[in-house]
Structures are given as structure tokens and as C-alpha cells.
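Much of the work behind modern protein science is quiet bookkeeping, done one molecule at a time. The protein below has been through that process, and both of its lines are reproduced in full.
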Amino acid sequence: MTRTPIELAAIASAAVPGLTPAGVAAAPDDAADFQSAVLLDDGGKRWRVRSPKHAEASVRLETELHVLRCFTPGVRAELPFLLPNVAGTVRQGNLSTFVYSHLPGSTRTIDELVAEPGNIAAELGRIMAAIHDLPLELVHSADLPSYSANEFRQRKLNELDQAATTGKIPSSLLLRWENALEDIALWQFHPSVVHGDLHEDHLLVHEGRVTGVNGWTDMRIGDPADDFAWLIAANDQTFADSVLESYSVTVQRAPDRHLLRRAALSAEFALAQWLVRGISIDDPAVVAEAEEMLATLDSDIAEYGGQPILADPPQPQHSPSAAPITINDAGTNVSSSPDRSDSRSSLESPAPRDADGRAPETATGDSGKPQPDGGMDDGRAPEAENAGGPATDARRDADSTAGPDDDGIGHHEDAEGSSIETGAGDPAAPDTGDGDEPRASTHPADQRDGGNGQKVTVEPLPTHESEAVDARVDDAGLQEPITRTRL
């Protein structure tokens, strides 16, 4: 149902005894759900009228009435902003129109807020922190919705499924949102009281300060990132970061590091919710607008990448055990670490090339899986004597193939693939003790299958002199600096 500002003024005079309108003007509001107007009575006092367009919106206004009554004078006194009071209501059919006391200040567009003189970003951060620090009991006593982090994520997944059934959302967006909702690390947050419908039309600004907050129809316990979603539309990362910085030093519980990423997801997903809303109220104009915005979003993400909405990639996990090593007939290390197809450790060597620069076929291990002949009886992976210590992700440094083991002793390979122990202080020189020759490894893992069914025992060459060679691929196919011995 659509009403003119004059009609809203007449309804207000019926809702508040003694109110005589002297002037009226339309006020911004959620266009799909409400109509609003600001009245001036004959005594110079201002009032705000809010009328629902459909039954669902009327229920939300009745919820807001219940919410505002829960803000006792003591709670209101602690807040750095003003809240409206309901002065009267009129019910017509199944719709209820509400009249509120008018709060000082006026609304701004998002761009006007960014350009507002003074530190409005710090003001917004403090306002949002005050909302999120409201006691949870305030929501519980009002019997309003409350969600844990996992319940909130599951609710979003259900909404995504519902949006997908419309067939009007680009598949790339559906996949992008589904990946974010399935990213468990992204949803590790502490639920708090949230406004639920915070945006520029519900903020009143006067002389560079946020004086009041309206629109309390969706207050709940949930994800605090939802109240940051409207900032994404500012397209000003500095402004959003300033708001978050002020918020972080004011709010009682420090925000999680993925808050702005979930806020970006919420801003994008709001377009799908707008589409579903338009279909549910059978408003072709809303549906067409939502489809257009979704298409624009899809195009922008395809061209520019869009805001990050996934958690940071997980850090490499350090493995305490070394991967087994396989040596072929030429003495070349051809083993590979399992599940490491996207990166090379210092144990993996590129294929050698011939004089023409062509790469010949190279023998490989068994699909990168650990070889059974190198295992131990208790199931642990064998130590790789010629690997220079445990094969961990930290050993991707291309400047070294050897590092100290737990006992402070490093290990290196010579040209024939044998293991030479070196002191931790000089990893490039073999430890010969009191003039003794380097010792051959007696580890079971060094008894290799030569590729023809025969066992090959790797023995060291007697050395009188050692030299470090540059990071090159030699004839045996070994990579990076190694210690080559000469007779």
C-alpha cells in the first residue's frame, strides 16, 4: 500500500492526540518495505511517521516497538547516541503505522559521510562498538533471534540454497559465496548484539557527530560483521579501515581478523536477498533491479577480482618426519613428497638437459608416494640421511639443501649420493673428526633398489679435498649447492 506524505500526516494526527500537522516532507527509508515522512506540528516540534507497505513490514515495525521498549532509561543513558521513542500507532487492516519522536540531525549519503568534516569515521566506530557491547540479555529478554557462529553460517547456507532456486543468479557468484560459506576458518567469531539493518539512512548526523540511530526492526544476536556491510559500498578502504580502527580500540572484545571479509560477503549476498524479497512480494521492479545489480557485480568481479571474502590461506604445517628417498641407477634422487605437487622442496630436482637444451625423460618415483622399502617396523617414515634433516615446508629455501638435525649435525650428499655429516657451524665442509674419512651411512634407508631388482649400497668416495659448487644441475641430476668431493 502506497501513501502520500499528506496521508501520512493525517494518520499521525490520529495516532498522537493533540498533534496538528503544519508541514510535512517525505523522508528516506527502505523503499520496498516502508514509507516515511517528517512532520512539523503547530508548536514547531518534529515527528517521524513510518508506514509499512505490506504485512511483513508491519510485523517488523511491531518488533521495533518491542525492541525500543527494552531500552530502559538506564541503558539509554550509557549509549553515545539517541534512540527514538514511539509516540503513537494506528492500525488499518493488517498494517500498523507508527509515529516517533523526531531525533536531531539528518541523514547523509555514504559519499557525504566520507566527505563529512571532522572525524566521522571515529564517531561511527564508537557508535558500532556501543551497539555490539549491549548486554546479550537485552535480546534474550525481548525474545529476539539469537545465533551462534555455526548456526549463523548454516542460516546463510540455507538462504543461498533458496536464492539458487530462483535461477536468476550467475553461477559464478553462487560458487563464490558457497566457497566462502564453506570456509570454516572465516566464521570463527564471537556473536554479539547487532543492529541488523545498519546503513546511512538510519544514521542521523549533526555538526559532524552521529546523534541518533533509527531502524531497530532487525536487532538480534549474530555476526558483528553484518553491521559493517554497508561500509563496503563506500568504495573507500581508508574510510572503512578508520571505522574499524576506532571500533577495535573501543569495543570490549577485540574483533576477529576476518570481520571485513565477512562484511564484504554480506554486502554481496544482500543483492541475492533483495532478489528473493522482490520475488516474495511479487514486485517486478525490485526483481529487475536486483538482477541488474547482480549482473554488474558478476562483471566487476570477473574484471577486477572483487573484495576478498575468503580466510587467509592456511600456513604450511611442519612435518616431524622426513620423506623416503629413492635413488635410481645413476645415483639420482627421484623421490617426491606426497601432496606437494604445487611446490618443490630442496629434495626435488628438475630434469637434466642435454646439449641442445632439451629435457630427456627422467625416471620418477611411484606417483610421489612413500616407498615401502624405506619404512620402519613401527610405521614411522625413515630419516633421510642424504636429505639434510626432516623434509619440512620450511626447507624450500633454494640456497641450501642441508640443515641441522635435532642433534645439531647437518647432512649432505656427495656426487655419488652418499651421506656426509657436517658440523652445524660449517654446513659446507664434511666433518672428518681427527682426520678420519667421511663415514658411510648405515641407515636402512640408504639400502636402495637400483631399479633392476638389485639392492644398491651407497658408499662414500675417499676425499682429500672438498669444494662447494654453484646452484646448477649436474650430470647426475642433482640441484642446488651440494658438496662435491674430489680424490
Q: What stands out?
A: The radius of gyration is 34 Å. The chain has a mean pLDDT of 75. The first helix runs from residue 5 to 15. The longest strand covers residues 34-41.
